[in-house]
Amino acid sequence: MEFPTRLIEGRLVKRYKRFLADVRLADDSVITVHCPNTGSMKRCQQEAARVWISDSHNDKRKYRHTWELVEVDEEYLACINTGYPNKLVGEAVKNQSIYELKDYKEQKAEVKYGENSRIDWLLTDENKPNCYIEVKNVTLLEEDGIGYFPDAVTDRGRKHLYELAKMVEVGYRGVLLFCVSHTGINQVSPASHIDEKYAVALKEVAEKGVEVIAYKVEISTSAMTIKEKIPVIF
User: What does pTM read for this prediction?
Assistant: First the structure.
């Protein structure tokens, strides 16, 4: 997946009101940009970090620029735009790049299921059980290449786990796919120190047959693509 326009480099001044961030550009001017991430963004909003933003070239937008990437610890790249992981997974499924999800005839996005929910991707084939895929974006690196999810308490995320487990109970496949959008993360673990209930639920549904896998994204300032499978450690 290529970014729609050439990204502009700047330095983060601050993020605020969840949806906004101030960025200092090379000419020392400061602009306000849209932040497409409502989460905590823990460790992904360090003061004066290098960031990359896109320009919509749409003057009708209140904030025409969008924050896309951030440099973490002056070493790694992370994608903070939560609109991309689903697209990356969809592209990888289409290209047969995810071994566990190969050889399905059809894939559909945002299909209604469960209790007033939508599954990120539904794969179907007349010769296989339906495959329900929930995608989660992982950007929290805390130590030794370990990425943690979630980065904040998520009752909604726990609800999604149990909905996947119900799909397994009736004979379908349920897959939780961690899309690791951080170049410093080499394995994923549930963040029991942040949301113990989620960590317990993840282990519970995995024991019931929900498949839990993680794939790492290769990130540059021009494009991103799902590259390789990495371990999930409970």
Answer: 0.95
CA distance 112 to 103: 23
Neighbours of 86 (CB within 10 A): 18
Buried/exposed code over 18-49 (b: 16+ C-beta within 10 A; e: otherwise): eeebebeeeeeeebebbbebebbbbbbbeeeb
pLDDT digits (tens, 9 = 90+) for 180-197: 999 999 999 999 999 999
Compute CA 78 distance to the chain's CA centroid, rounded to the nearest angstrom: 10
Query: CA–CA separation, 198 vs 18, rounded Å?
Result: 23
Quote the CA–CA distance of 143 and 139 in Å, as a whole number. 12
Fold entry, domain 84-230: Trna Endonuclease; Chain: A, domain 1 (3.40.1350)
- Quick: pLDDT tens for 3-46: 989 999 999 999 999 999 999 999 999 999 999 998 899 999 99
